[in-house]
Amino acid sequence: MKVSLRGQAALLLAVNGLFVLSGALAGTFLNVYLWKNRQDYAMIGWFTVAQQLALGLSFWLGGKWVKEHNKMNALRLGIAVSGLFYLLVLWLESKVTQYVWPLGIVLGIASGLFWLAFNIVYFEITERENRDAFNGWVGLLGSLTGIVGPWLSGWLISALHGNRGYRIVFIISLCVYATAAVLSFFLKKRKTSGSYEWLEPWHRLRSGDGDWRVTAAALFFQGLREGVFSFLIGLLVYIAAKEESKLGQFTLITSAVSLVSYWAAGKWLRPKFRSAGMLCGALLLVAVILPMLWAVSYGMLLVMGIGTSLFIPLYMLPMVSTSFDLMGESEESAGKRVELVVLRELCLMTGRLAGTFVFIGILSVSAAPRTVTLLMLGLGAAPLGSWLFLHRMLRRESLPERS
Known about the structure:
This protein is mainly alpha-helical. It has helices spanning 8-27, 30-37, 41-68, 71-92, 100-125, 128-160, 162-184, 200-206, 210-241, 244-268, 274-287, 298-327, 331-335, 337-365, 369-380, 382-396. It has one domain (8-186, 196-395): Growth Hormone, Chain: A (Up-down Bundle), CATH 1.20.1250.20. It is found in: Cell membrane.
């Protein structure tokens, strides 16, 4: 039965939008807040490592709760723990850099619980025919929140000066999380089925399931890039511009571009175009980093950011849709959707950790601008690895669909 993007799907998009908005309001400036207290790339890297370890563990351990009990409560707890994280940041103030490991763990647990439940519900209320459209809407809402949230936060922080602006932003973020939590109670409780198989992710990779093996490798390369790019770009913009308002402006512009590109990709990127689109996207994501070889300036970062926003949907939509299509290709796979979502996240986590360890290792030796650019260029080429592993699978999509 075809599922439209109305009802529960629209409500899930709204909850997701509020959760992402709150992250855009406060999360965009979180690493800048840490940097202003202690200018240390390694410290930022270890904060990310703590998040990723906790996120992966939350997916694996939370899988039992989500499969056998109420996944909606896992989603709500994720929202609540996100609020707790920002309460802790407000309480610690200038001491925040002394607690990057416990804070990273709290934020990782919050993200893990929310995204685990979200991904399972997303799978249950979409199917192959409308999954690209749903992903396009997720990207579009993410772009809208990226326009409003960081610009507002940057303006407040710059206008109020010092830590007062950050406190106001973190408090607003808490209020948005509370709104998302209330809205989540209108999502219907999903049925549970079967018992959770703890070692299914490992068994799936060790068995002869070639599709999941190549998908796992592709996800590792996706994580290799995004683990570092998720925090480094915003930090570099602040370091280059030395103003939070400039980071808000950067995010506003790039998110406005992303809004259009995600809308277009969601509308026209059909399964039969996934392979070609993904290759073009991967190549262009590398190309937009090249101007940084001349200078790591605000202008060059803006060129890279606009280019990335234009082309990343070509890469991301096939990556997301392909792995979720695999979960629904048989009744047996659909019955193990929780375990397969956990497998997907563990692959991403492994890539993110690998990229972050490379970041910490290289920048602990040299933090020169050229070193940073070459590191970005190397990690930025990781999407090509994803395409190399997935292109044979993606080409199947160009064949006539079986009845």
